[in-house]
Amino acid sequence: xxxxxxxxxxxxxxxxxxxxxxxxxxxxxxxxxxxxxxxxxxxxxxxxxxxxxxxxxxxxxxxxxxxxxxxxx
Length: 73
Prior knowledge:
By secondary structure, the protein is mostly helical. The chain has one domain (2-72).
């Protein structure tokens, strides 16, 4: 896309997604911030959540559970 053509943007995106993944817990989430992490990875095109990567599916499932619990409150 056009934004990636700007010098430094692709490198910054790569660094940001690497940092985000490094900060992920062993349970494949970010505690209360898991929905934000999942959305950030998806928007950065660093995760597809298409059922082919187990770690992505675990993050997505945790997000679904957190949303369901929040709606039940």
